[in-house]
């Protein structure tokens, strides 16, 4: 092989390596920049009042008040949706891992359709939630929004729980069967107990997604300055509060939108960081 | 004890029913959107909805071409920016990075990709829109900054972590045997990647790109915040456009007050759903075939 050829090959490698460094730096840099800028812009407008008060009259013109209604609304909404999604996703992921062999046709059908559902845009879930809401004769409310967000969270949760339950050693279930336990008893008293940290991780991840999603609640949540006290009342959410406040022409209110964005970003990052830490610890427990 | 066995049977039946229901969930989604969009489909020939730019809900004219073009242009542009960058980053992360660095950077990218869409939109308004406005003035286009280019940039940033994630996973499934064989023949590391690893991983990388595409198609809030929302067929990067998801999101308020309007909007939702489902099916089909070693 000629030397010049080798030199050319090495040069090509060097060029591509430089491009790769650049790409990684670009992606990571941009993502960090986003978090940095949101926090830098939001922190100056952040105050105790913003976190502890609901909007007073003229709040959207720059007067007194805070975004407590949106913070609480978002937490209610995401908790309700996560709970509802859990009530469906736990039985489903148990069914494909405990009741059938987890490489059965049904199991792979479930996994396949979860992957497909995962890809459906949240605005479509929002539109579907809206259709359900109208046909049930409901008005825009916390309850209707919970249904829409639960649908959106469902595939995320089933997939996360499935990954956890797959890892539970088969021998554990067999030991339980040999003692005379039924599948249901084994599922809830042995398998679920073993998988709790992983299930919490899955739940937190879905919660984080749900709390940050705007499009799925656009049609169904409504918006209000008050904290909802029942499922049939409309609810404000943080993403929508950011969206609306940013749309006003007043710099004061826009500053509050940045502050609300900071609150949301920090909440989501803390939630998913916690989820990851639990998952990390848990995977160590299994291998050691 | 019959009580326990009966309970087991009942639980099993309920769980099975839930599992089936969840599997078929896409069906009621598609069917209900389709049924709701029937009135507008019956009101006018299909061609006058799909291929006309006349969008005048008050007069019952629902030509969606401008919105399709909005979605197509912003998605294509975003893919053009995101795909090369994401693939290069994924290749570096899986082939060149030390495992310590990889274990640090990958979770970081995943974590940051969980940032809510609306936050990307806020960032777009703070940083991208003014920058693009400035840029457009340099080119003599006098754009407000709320335009196709801003939308595409936000979208590109949002889908990159996703493409990186899937592409990295695909690359990590390529066996080390073929890498070693190629290196042993005197190929440089880059040649090995280019000629063997990428060739082996090609179908999966295509799938990663398609999955990124379907994410981009449905992304709503961040894009609508920076893209201007004017239903027109763009002639330059600095023209505002109006993508399909934004149409749906912006008009939910008044859609019940004008006849057929809600039906037209839900039709746009249906079209979005079908497009995304089709691309997801193709991508997942490819990935599955790869897993089974059929490709």
The level-1 CATH class of the largest domain in chain A:
Mainly Alpha
CATH superfamily of chain B, by name, is MetI-like
Gap between N and C termini of chain B? 51 Å
Q: Would you tell me the structural class of the helices and strands of chain A? A: mainly alpha
- Just give the CATH class of chain B: Mainly Alpha
Question: What is the CATH-assigned architecture of chain B?
Answer: Orthogonal Bundle
Low-pLDDT stretches of chain A: none
Class by SSE composition of chain B: mainly alpha
The CATH superfamily of the largest domain in chain A appears as MetI-like
Short overview:
The complex is a heterodimer of chains A (288) and B (295). Chain A is mainly α. Chain A has helices spanning 3-42, 48-52, 68-99, 105-119, 122-135, 142-167, 170-178, 183-212, 238-246, 251-287.
Characteristic terms for this protein:
heterodimer; A: about 290 residues; mainly alpha; MetI-like fold; 2 domains; about 75% helix; globular; B: about 300 residues; two-stranded antiparallel ribbon; 2 strands
Tell me what the structure shows:
The complex is a heterodimer of chains A (288) and B (295). With 288 residues, chain A is mainly alpha-helical. In chain A, 75% of the residues lie in helices and 0% in strands. Chain A has 2 domains: 9-45; 51-287, MetI-like fold (Orthogonal Bundle). In chain A, helix 3 (68-99) packs across helix 6 and helix 5 crosses helix 6 (142-167). Chain A is globular, with a radius of gyration of 24 Å. The termini of chain A are far apart. The N and C termini of chain B lie far apart (51 Å). With 295 residues, chain B is an all-alpha fold. Chain B contains 12 helices and 2 strands. Chain B has helices spanning 2-23, 26-43, 46-50, 65-96, 99-113, 117-138, 148-172, 176-184, 189-218, 221-226, 244-250, 261-291, and strands at residues 55-56, 61-62. The model of chain B has no long low-confidence stretch (mean pLDDT 91). Chain B is globular. Chains A and B meet through helix 1, helix 3, helix 4, helix 5 and helix 6 of A and helix 1, helix 2, helix 4, helix 5 and helix 6 of B.
């Amino acid at each position: 092989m000629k030397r010049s050829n080798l030199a050319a090959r090495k040069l090509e490698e060097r060029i591509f390596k430089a491009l790769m460094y650049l790409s990684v730096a670009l992606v990571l840099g941009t993502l960090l920049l986003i978090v940095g800028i949101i926090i830098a812009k939001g922190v100056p407008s952040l105050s105790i009042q913003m976190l502890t008060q609901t909007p007073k009259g003229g709040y959207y013109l720059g007067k007194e008040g805070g975004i407590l209604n949106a913070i609480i609304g978002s937490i209610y909404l995401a908790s309700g949706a996560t709970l509802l999604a859990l009530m469906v996703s736990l039985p489903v992921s148990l069914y494909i891992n405990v009741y059938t062999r987890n490489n059965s046709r049904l199991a792979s059908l479930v996994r396949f359709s979860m992957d497909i559902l995962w890809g459906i845009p949240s605005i479509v879930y929002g539109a579907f939630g809206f259709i359900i809401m109208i046909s049930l004769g409901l008005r825009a409310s916390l309850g209707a929004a919970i249904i829409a967000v639960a649908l959106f969270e469902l595939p995320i949760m089933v997939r996360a729980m499935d990954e956890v339950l797959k890892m539970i050693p088969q021998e554990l279930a067999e030991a339980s069967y040999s003692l005379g336990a039924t599948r249901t008893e084994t599922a809830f008293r042995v398998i679920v107990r073993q998988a709790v940290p992983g299930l919490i991780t899955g739940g937190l991840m879905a919660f984080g997604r749900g709390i940050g999603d705007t499009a799925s609640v656009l049609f169904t949540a409504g918006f209000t300055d008050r904290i909802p006290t029942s499922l049939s009342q409309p609810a404000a959410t943080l993403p929508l509060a950011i969206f609306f406040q940013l749309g006003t022409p007043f710099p004061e209110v826009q500053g509050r939108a940045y502050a609300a964005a900071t609150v949301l970003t920090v909440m989501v990052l803390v939630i998913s960081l916690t989820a990851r830490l639990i998952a990390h610890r848990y995977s160590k427990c299994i291998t050691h | 004890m019959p009580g326990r066995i009966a309970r087991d049977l009942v639980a099993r039946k309920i769980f099975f029913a839930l599992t089936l229901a969840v599997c078929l969930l896409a069906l009621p989604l598609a069917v209900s959107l389709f049924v709701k969009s029937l009135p507008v489909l019956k009101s006018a020939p299909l061609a006058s909805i799909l291929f006309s730019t006349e969008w005048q809900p008050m007069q019952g004219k629902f030509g969606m071409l401008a919105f399709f073009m909005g979605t197509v242009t912003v998605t294509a542009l975003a893919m053009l920016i995101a795909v090369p960058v994401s693939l290069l980053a994924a290749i570096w992360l899986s082939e060149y990075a030390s495992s310590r660095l990889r274990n640090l950077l990958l979770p970081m990218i995943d974590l940051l990709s969980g940032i809510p869409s609306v936050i990307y939109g806020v960032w777009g308004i703070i940083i991208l829109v003014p920058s693009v406005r400035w840029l457009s003035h340099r080119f003599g286009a006098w754009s407000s900054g709320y335009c196709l280019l801003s939308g595409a940039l936000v979208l590109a940033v949002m889908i990159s972590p996703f493409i990186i994630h899937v592409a990295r996973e695909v690359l990590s499934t390529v066996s080390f045997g073929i890498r070693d064989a190629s290196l042993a023949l005197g190929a440089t590391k880059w040649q090995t990647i280019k000629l063997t690893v990428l060739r082996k991983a090609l179908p999966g990388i295509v799938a990663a790109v398609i999955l990124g595409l379907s994410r981009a198609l449905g992304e709503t809030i961040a894009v609508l915040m920076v893209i201007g929302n004017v239903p027109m067929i763009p002639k330059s990067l600095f023209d505002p456009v109006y993508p399909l998801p934004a149409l749906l999101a912006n008009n939910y308020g008044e859609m019940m007050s004008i006849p057929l309007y809600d039906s037209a909007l839900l039709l746009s939702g249906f079209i979005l759903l079908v497009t995304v489902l089709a691309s997801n099916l193709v991508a997942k089909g490819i990935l599955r075939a790869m897993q089974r070693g059929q490709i």
